[in-house]
From TrEMBL:
Residues 11-166 form the Glutamine amidotransferase domain. One of its GO terms (cellular component) is cytosol. This is Glutamine amidotransferase domain-containing protein.
Length: 180
């Protein structure tokens, strides 16, 4: 797990560990240059630094784009991935709490949820269109890209904080099945 400054890292780790994952957390400045064979996936947490600060996140972006393991960017982690690949962040209404999102249940990420999920948000910035090489796999009215996936199916992103709701836990379960 790459900790980009989220306050909810303990909850995110707890959720993944409850799913049988062994987690290791490092801050973005200490992220390795590459993922060695000990690691089967990379999770990027939410952020305190704005996702459009490409200089700050350059080593992390290089890691994400060159690793062979599945990657899941959550909240600001998704925004880092999207912006690095050409998406823009735009301001929108402030959302705090549970919100309904429509998801593409044919995607393996959503194997354990229904087409409408309730996820937790704490946001004012949104990705309005998936960047080239990615597609939106979840949407809501204020956020057309609630979830995204790379065309090769290796990189995922969630605008929501999946560590706080039951549906979020089940989406994390879907992610863990990609590498177990």
């Amino acid at each position: 797990m790459i900790n980009n400054g989220t306050l909810s890292l303990p909850q995110l780790r707890q959720r993944l560990e409850a799913l049988g994952c062994v987690t290791d957390a490092v801050d973005v400045a200490s992220a390795p240059g590459r993922v060695d064979s000990r690691y089967r996936a990379v999770v990027l947490s939410g952020t305190k630094v704005r996702a459009h600060d490409q200089d700050h996140y350059r080593p992390l972006i290089d890691l994400v784009m060159t690793t062979d393991v599945p990657v899941f960017g959550i909240c600001g982690g998704m925004q880092i991935i999207a912006v690095a690949n050409g998406a823009r962040l735009t301001p929108g209404s402030q959302r705090v709490g549970g919100y309904e999102v429509q998801v593409d249940v044919q995607d393996p990420l959503f194997a354990y949820v229904k087409p409408t999920v309730t996820v937790f948000h704490r946001h004012t910035l949104y990705v309005r269109a998936a960047p080239e090489g990615f597609r939106a796999i979840g949407r809501s009215e204020p956020a057309p890209v609630e979830f995204l996936r790379s065309d090769d199916g290796r990189i995922y992103g969630s605008q929501a904080h999946l560590e706080f709701r039951r549906d979020g836990m089940e989406i994390l379960r879907g992610f863990t099945r990609l590498f177990q």
